[in-house]
Every structure is written in structure tokens, then in C-alpha cells.
From TrEMBL:
One of its GO terms (cellular component) is cytosol. GO terms for molecular function: 3'-5' DNA helicase activity; ATP binding; DNA binding; hydrolase activity. ATP binds at G217, A218, A219, G220, S221, G222, K223, T224. It comes from Peribacillus asahii. It holds the Pfam family UvrD-helicase. This is DNA helicase. Keywords: ATP-binding, Helicase, Hydrolase, Nucleotide-binding. Residues 196-592 form the UvrD-like helicase ATP-binding domain. The keyword Transmembrane does not apply. InterPro entries: DNA_helicase_UvrD/REP, HelD_bacillota, P-loop_NTPase, UvrD-like_ATP-bd.
Length: 751
């Protein structure tokens, strides 16, 4: 009901006004100084209020919000127009006292007197709102269980500081707020959903932060959204322990990073590093690579020749766990190159045995990158030399001094004595010099035979000897296959080029040989569209970052890169993240029932057991097929966009299978309307423009209305990739879906 009709309207209105004014005081005070506090307080609450609100005066003067961090101040400012979104009345069993809790995006409270004006949505007690139902409940905070009674659960719609609506939720109400939120039009950007997080999503956001998590979620189930909220939760939970810059979000493209970026400041997550995998690897291995544009998917769609088959085969190998085994053996072999043949001598003094050196290098320092091990050993030898320096020099001195002494006391001719003494003095000087030189140079000389190659040299070297490759693979590669692989790689190396699929291996090798710089190592990594990563890439990320604190979210049904990515989660779960919690999300929040029903039919065509996606009940129009006649489809499409705009929808896209069809569509559409925009990978999504993009770039994005278009390219039922691409396309719209092509079969529609 609107706030005007609600019986508690007056009290809620007053509460809101108080909160807003109170926030104002806190903000102004934090921005100015403590001295001005009283003045502001008086001005805000007036003289009378001021006296009565002595409690708050005390609260504020003692409060440590004067030490408020800039980030806290910023989030408070952001929350001014919408300080909270829900209220829960909760009576704890332990004391029977009723607490009235208002939940918002940030907290405002005073620890000393427990007065909470706004409770942060990320605090443990907020579970009461997300998971609790009216009646008796329990919730957990820091390992302790609390129980009590929820007597009121209320949603408060506040916009621009005005209380628009009040909704009380009882056991039977449907979540109208969620329905409203889903019915809204999209803004081309991802938004926060703190007021409508669903129970299954809440569980993932708050799942044990000390464990990795793998989420297999249907298209539109909120994976990206949840992943961002989980980071926000993590930052809140560990605010005193972690710097947000130690968190890293890996997204498939810059286009995608731009798409999620709007939700980041809202969630306080903008400081987390945001990279594509390619960007991260190059920064981690400190080397800019000449990476050839990834055309394999397009080749697979368009060329399907032997060359494509070969490159797909190589991609599979380079991304596999088998390749990790090969690299492990290779690394082992590289270590042996550092095993010394001889004991370490400084001058004639044997200071360290080769056996001991080998043991440290090969066994005891197993947890360190090879070159760090070597550096450590260097330090050990240097300190050995240092500690023996005096002894060595003293020995020479005393040896020759004794000789000199003897010569001086021997009964020989003076000439001869002088000769002896001079000789011994010279010898002593000479030996002392020799030892000093040995002290300066012996360590360096000992390490001289040990190579120091560049990461790219090591990587290229792996493909120079096919027989060795077979050995490293423990026979899982045949000699023919190894030769094929070497030939393939050498073709690129000659041009100093690398493929995207080389990056996982390069990062893995680099981590084992040199180790990624500490500054670049993330402590917590969130990967969106994780199904597109290969085993090797995920393994490399884990090895390079020294942590298994990963959040992987993805959807195998959208695995259009499965030739190099994943077909199942099991191997990753089992071999890379054995501690991970695995969760599935089957509900879709994006798409209407009518559109999802059509998209679900595609899942049945795939040779996997993908469960049908359950759309959250929201109805809309059925998808419409428009027959392509000459070029008149262009006008019809643009007319449809106009009509949808009049209905209040805002974002639209034309999605073709390939870029070729996109260009064709662009030609037709741009002649009628100049503002249409052809989207490329590095581009930003323009607001308020009709965008044309290929299916593989549409992954992760959403639009109010989508036109799936087939001009020269159609989707064929025989191709798993085609089915997945079409599934991606059909799950992009929030409200309307149109097909434009020669026949319905081109979109695998079978009535
Ligand atoms: N609890 C929720 N309340 C409101 N909106 C939600 C909720 N969960 C998800 N959504 C909305 O559903 C849409 C899909 O979310 P999101 O893009 O995160 O899904 P996804 O699983 O990553 O999808 P895809 O796999 O297709 O990329 C977004 O518009 C998001 O705001």
C-alpha cells in the first residue's frame, strides 16, 4: 500500500525525517570538525529538541565517528536519499526486549549504548530480513546462535528521501518488491539488489568466507550480481584485515567490466582490482605479449576446416590437466639444472656440500619458486663465507707468521733469513689477497653455470624437443601428437606471437620459476563466466596467488568456449579447489516465463543433463517471429523499438550469430537510423542506443528487448555450439524477444 494509507505512516515518516537529519549532522560534523559539532547539532534540531535530545548529544560527542574513514563517510553520503529499505521488529528470547531494526546499505550506530539507527545489510542480523519469516527464528552471528521472534517485517520504499510505500510482509504475501524490481526496465548496467536478495542468493553471498565457492547458476539467476555482493560482504566482514585492493574481479572483457562497473560503487567494491584474464597474466608475468586475436570461436562457426580442427585440438591440450602434469615435469627438470656438480669451496675451504644444496633446492624449499630457492641458497652460501671469513684469513696469517717466526729464529745466514722472511711475507700477502678475492667472488662463480632465462625462453624451449614432451607427458601424448604440438607452437613463436591459451601455462610456469610479485597477488579472487576458463587457467590462477579463496560463478549451458573451457565442474572442484562449496542456482530472475519456456527447449537439445531453468513468476508476451522480407525487416524492427520505448522499455539490442551478420544488419539499420551502434569487444555499451552485437559478446549482458536476427547465418541443430549461442541470445532479454529470419527453423523453433 502507498505510505499514505498505512496506519504507521506518521511514525515511519517521523523516523525517516529524524534519520535523515541525523545523517546530515554526522556528515557535516565529520566533514568539519568536532568543535563545530555543538553548533550544527543546535542548528539542526533546534534549541528545544536539542535539550531533549541530550541522549543523542552524549551519543555524538562520545562517538568515534569523528574518526570515520573517508570510505564510511562516502557511503553515508550515498545513503542519504535512501537511508534504509526494510524494518524488522525482533524480540530476543534471551531478554524479551523488542528491537526495531532498520536495514540499509550502510550502518549508523553507536557502539557504547547499542543504539543502532541503521543496520548494514551485510551484518549478521540482516539475515532476519533475508531469511526470517514472521514468528520464531534463529540466526547466527560469529558462530553463536540467537533465537527470538519476528513480529514485523516491513519493506520501505524510499526514493529521493521520500517515503513512497510501506509494505508489511506476512507469511502469505508474495514478494512484490522483487516483482516490481524485476518488472523495471534495464539501464544497460548491473545494479545492486540489496533490498530484494533471495534466500538462496543470500546463502551464497554469506557462505563461509574462508572457503572457496563454485556456483553453477542458470542464465539470469543473479550470478554476477551475487558475486559482487559477496565481495561487498567480504569487504565489510574483513574491513580491518583486508585492503579491498587485495581483491580481484576477473571478467571476460572490458565491455563486461564497464557493464558491472555501475554496481561497484553502490556496493563499495570499486576499489577491488578489475581485470580480464589476459590483462592480469601480462601484469603478473611482467611481460607484454603479442597475443593474436582469439578467432577460434568464429573459425569454428564459419570455417570448420582442418586448420581450425588442429587449433581447437591444441587449445584443448593447452588448457587440460594433462598439460599441467607436463609443466610439472618440466619444472622438475628445470630444478635439476640447478643441482651443483661440486661442493662449494671458498678458496681451498669446503663450505657447503653439493648434497645438502640439492636437498634444500629440491626438497626443503619445495614451496618456493625456483629462482627464490636459488636466491635463498645464494644467501646461505654468502653467510657461510661471511662467517668463515675471519677463520680463513687468520689461518693464513698464523701459518705464515709461524714460518716467519721460525725463519727469524733459525740459525742461518742473515741474507738467507732475509730472503726467507721476504718470501713468506710476500706469500702471506699473496694468499691473503687470494682469499679475499675468493670471499668476494666464490659465490658468484659457483652460481655462474646456473642459467637465468626469461619466462618466454623457458616456455618456448618446452616445445623444441618433442621427445622430451612425450617424456614429460608420461606417455599420454604420442610422439606424433607431440611433434604436431611443437610444430603448431613454433609457427607462432617464430613471429613472437602467443595464443590466449598459452596464458594459463605461462602464468603457471612463471609462478613456479619466479613467483608473482606480492603486490600483484590477490587474496581473494572472483571469477565471472568461470565456465569459459580452462583447467590450466584456473590452476595457474590458484598457484600464482597462494590462496584458494576463489568465488567461481558460471553456467555450463552457456559454455560456448567449451573447446578450451570446462564441460563440467567436477575436475576443477576435485583437483584445484577441493575445499570448495558447490552450489546450484536454478531460478532465473531476468527473463519472463514466456521467454524462458522457449529458451528451456534448447537445453533439451544439448547432450547434457542441464536442468530446466525456473523463471521467477513474471509474465510477458510470447517471443514473436518476424519473417525477413527483403530489407523491410529493418523498418519493422525500428518501429518495434519505438513502440517498446513508448511502453517504457529502454534498452534494446540486435543479436546475430556472427559479426558478419551484425555488419549486414548494421548496414540496413544505420541507413534508416544513424544512431544504431555496432558493438565490438573493446567498446563501451552506449546508453540509450540500439546496439548490434554478435552472440558471443552478448554473454553476461541484458536488455529490455532483444531481436535475435539471422540474415545469412542460421543456427543448426547439429551443432552444440550453435545451440549454446542461441541459448545465450534467448536469455538476454528481460521483457521482449523477437526472431527475425527466413524461417523459424533458423532459430531451432519447432512448434
Ligand atoms: N534478488 C534479485 N532481486 C532483483 N533482481 C535480481 C535479483 N537477482 C537477480 N536479479 C536481476 O536478474 C538479472 C540477472 O542477474 P545477473 O546478470 O547477475 O545474472 P547471471 O546469472 O549472471 O546471468 P547470466 O548467466 O545470463 O550472465 C539482473 O538484472 C539482476 O539485477
Amino acid at each position: 500500500m502507498t505510505s499514505k494509507q498505512h496506519p504507521d505512516r506518521k511514525s515511519e515518516q517521523e523516523r525517516l525525517e529524524f534519520t535523515k537529519r541525523y545523517m546530515d549532522v554526522v556528515i557535516k560534523t565529520a566533514e568539519t570538525s568536532k568543535d563545530q559539532f555543538k553548533k550544527i547539532m543546535q542548528e539542526t534540531f533546534g534549541d528545544e529538541d536539542w535539550k531533549e535530545s541530550g541522549r543523542y548529544a552524549e551519543l555524538l560527542t562520545t562517538a568515534n565517528f569523528f574518526d570515520m574513514s573517508q570510505a564510511e563517510l562516502e557511503s553515508l553520503k550515498k545513503a542519504q536519499s535512501k537511508p534504509y529499505f526494510a524494518r524488522v521488529d525482533f524480540t530476543r528470547d534471551e531478554n524479551g526486549i523488542k528491537e526495531i531494526l532498520y536495514f540499509g546499505k550502510t550502518s549508523l550506530y553507536q557502539r557504547e549504548n547499542q543504539e543502532q539507527i541503521i543496520v548494514d545489510w551485510r551484518s549478521p542480523i540482516a539475515n532476519l530480513y533475508y531469511e526470517g519469516r514472521i514468528g520464531s527464528v534463529t540466526y547466527e552471528a560469529e558462530g553463536e546462535k540467537f533465537s527470538g521472534d519476528i513480529t514485523l517485517k516491513r519493506q520501505l520504499m524510499i526514493e529521493d528521501g521520500n517515503l513512497d510505500e510501506i509494505r508489511d510482509i506476512d507469511l502469505t504475501t508474495t514478494d512484490e518488491l522483487l516483482q516490481d524490481s524485476l518488472a523495471k526496465s534495464s539501464s544497460n548496467r548491473l545494479t545492486e539488489i540489496v533490498s530484494t536478495i533471495q534466500e538462496e542468493q543470500n546463502k551464497i553471498i554469506r557462505a563461509d568466507l574462508n572457503k572457496p565457492i563454485i556456483v553453477q547458476g542458470a542464465a539470469g539467476s543473479g550470478k554476477t550480481t551475487i558475486a559482487l555482493h559477496r565481495i561487498s560482504y567480504f569487504i565489510y566482514y574483513y574491513k580491518d584485515l583486508f585492503d579491498p585492493r587485495q581483491l580481484m574481479i576477473l571478467a571476460p572483457s572490458r565491455l563486461f567490466i564497464d557493464y558491472i562497473s555501475e554496481a561497484l560503487p553502490e556496493l563499495g567494491v570499486e576499489e577491488a582490482k578489475q581485470f580480464t584474464f589476459t590483462e592480469y597474466v601480462q601484469s603478473a608475468i611482467e611481460c607484454e605479449l603479442n597475443i593474436i586475436p582469439d578467432k577460434k570461436l568464429i573459425d569454428l562457426l564459419e570455417k570448420k576446416d582442418d586448420e581450425t580442427a588442429e587449433s581447437i585440438w591444441v587449445s584443448g591440450i593447452k588448457g587440460s590437466s594433462q598439460f599441467k602434469e607436463i609443466l610439472d615435469q618440466y619444472v622438475k627438470e628445470i630444478i635439476t639444472r640447478f643441482f651443483p656438480k661440486e661442493d662449494f669451496y671458498c678458496d681451498k675451504y669446503r663450505l657447503y656440500s653439493a648434497k645438502k644444496f640439492k636437498k634444500l633446492l629440491g626438497e626443503e624449499y619445495w614451496y618456493l619458486p625456483i629462482y627464490t630457492r636459488v636466491d635463498k641458497l645464494k644467501q646461505i652460501l654468502q653467510s657461510q663465507v661471511k662467517s668463515k671469513k675471519k677463520t680463513m684469513l687468520d689461518r693464513v696469517t698464523s701459518f705464515y707468521d709461524t714460518k716467519i717466526q721460525k725463519a727469524l729464529t733459525r740459525n742461518i745466514k742473515p741474507n738467507l733469513r732475509r730472503e726467507y722472511v721476504t718470501k713468506f711475507l710476500d706469500k702471506k700477502a699473496e694468499r691473503t689477497e687470494e682469499i679475499k678475492k675468493a670471499i668476494r667472488t666464490s659465490v658468484k662463480a659457483y652460481f655462474k653455470p646456473f642459467e637465468r632465462k626469461h619466462i618466454l625462453e623457458y616456455y618456448q624451449e618446452l616445445f623444441t624437443d618433442s621427445e622430451m614432451l612425450v617424456t614429460y607427458s608420461d606417455g599420454t601424448l604420442s610422439i606424433k601428437e607431440a611433434e604436431r604440438l611443437c610444430r603448431y607452437q613454433m609457427k607462432f613463436f617464430r613471429e613472437n606471437q602467443y595464443e590466449l591459451e598459452d596464458l594459463g601455462a605461462l602464468l603457471y610456469l612463471y609462478s613456479h620459476l619466479f613467483g608473482v610479485d606480492k603486490e600483484k597477488r590477490a587474496k581473494n579472487i572472483v571469477i565471472d563466466e568461470a565456465q569459459d576458463y580452462s583447467f590450466m587457467q584456473l590452476q595457474a590462477l590458484k598457484t600464482s596467488s597462494d590462496t584458494d579463496m576463489f568465488t567461481l560463478v558460471g553456467d555450463l549451458a552457456q559454455g560456448i568456449y567449451s573447446y578450451r573451457g570446462l564441460e563440467e565442474w567436477e575436475e576443477v572442484h576435485h583437483s584445484i579447489f577441493p575445499r570448495a562449496t558447490y552450489t546450484e542456482l536454478k531460478k532465473s530472475y531476468r527473463t519472463t516465463v514466456e521467454i524462458m519456456n522457449e529458451a528451456n527447449k534448447l537445453l533439451e537439445l544439448l547432450p547434457y543433463n542441464f536442468p530446466q531453468v525456473e523463471p521467477v513468476v513474471r509474465h510477458g508476451e510470447k517471443p514473436i517471429f518476424i519473417k525477413k522480407v527483403n530489407q523491410s525487416w529493418g523498418k519493422e524492427l525500428l518501429d518495434r523499438v519505438q513502440t517498446m520505448k513508448q511502453e517504457g522499455l529502454r534498452t534494446f539490442s540486435v543479436i546475430a550469430k556472427t559479426m558478419e551478420d551484425c555488419c549486414e544488419a548494421y548496414k540496413v539499420l544505420s541507413e534508416i537510423d544513424e544512431s544504431v551502434c555496432l558493438l565490438e569487444e573493446q567498446a563501451f555499451i552506449p546508453k540509450d542506443q540500439l546496439v548490434i552485437l554478435p552472440s558471443y559478446l552478448a554473454k553476461g549482458l541484458e536488455f529490455d528487448g532483444v531481436f535475435a536476427i539471422s540474415l545469412n547465418e542460421s543456427y543448426t541443430i547439429e551443432s552444440e555450439l550453435d545451440i549454446k549461442l542461441l541459448y545465450v541470445v534467448m536469455t538476454r532479454p528481460l521483457h521482449r524477444l523477437f526472431f527475425i529470419g527466413n524461417s523459424e527453423e533458423d532459430f531451432l523453433i519447432r512448434n
